[in-house]
Fold this sequence. Notes:
Order of helices and strands: EEEHEEEEEEEHHEHHHHHHHHHH
Strand content: 15-25%
Radius of gyration: 22 Å
Amino acid sequence: MARKGKTAGTAGADPASGVQSYFIYGFDRRDFDQRFLHFERIEEQLPYHDWSARPHLHDGLHQIMFFSSGGGEMLIEDRWLAFKAPAMVFVPAGVVHGFRFARDTAGPIVTVSQDFMAEVLGFVETEIAGVTHRPVLAPLDASQIDQHEIDGLFRGVARDYSSGMRGRGTAFMASLALLLVALARVCDQSLDPRHEAGAYPEIFRAFQQKVERTFRAQPSIAEIADDLGLTPGRLTMVCRAMAQRSPQQLLHMRLVAEAKRQLLYSSHAAAHIAYALGFRDPGYFSRFFKRETGMSPIAFRRNQPAPPMA
């Protein structure tokens, strides 16, 4: 777990979108361990940035925020949304976001690695884990804050973050799980009516059709998103909400399915299949296939039972 004590630097640009990518807002991307967690308060950091955060993303890092006072506007991908405190926010890794805060805004920000969050999601119910599939901006009232002990949950994270007490990792996992439970219970209102599930199936179908037409050329997710008039982050939101997988995972699944078909129902050599599926190197195709299925193309073909006699 990280402790306070950052070094300044400039952000890098995300290679897929050109959007600025930060470690913590305003600081260079850097390596972090699998159980990375960082705690800070909005009112301690944003005055140095004139109470605003330009559009940016965090590669491999989720954020959970609680605005206890103030308000402003929040950017999610391509839309600015007004909000007033109190409110809880969840921003998944890789989603473009930004803020324009009122100067009386206050509250905690918890930043946690995808790997650490994945550990937590491994022992929570599916309906709770689902809250991490897309951004959330959930307005609260005083009764919800008291009912779900939201202030207390963030105070617990702050206490363990600033201490060196034994069991901090376990305490963080428990606190993160409870924060996700609280978030799931209060996020009945989505970010924006246009982001509700009704809009997702149409976008997801368009993505599936695009993949079906182009998967042999192995387009980048940025190219697919651009052709659909979306940002990569928004396309990721839709795919995770509809299929619990990233666009890249879904593209890889289609490639694997086609590779299996050709290995089973054609006599083409593995190298021929590799080139037909857009792989420039048959060796890389073999490694890709083994990574996705657990066996090489040749082993997959050899291990399949013979078709029944007519």
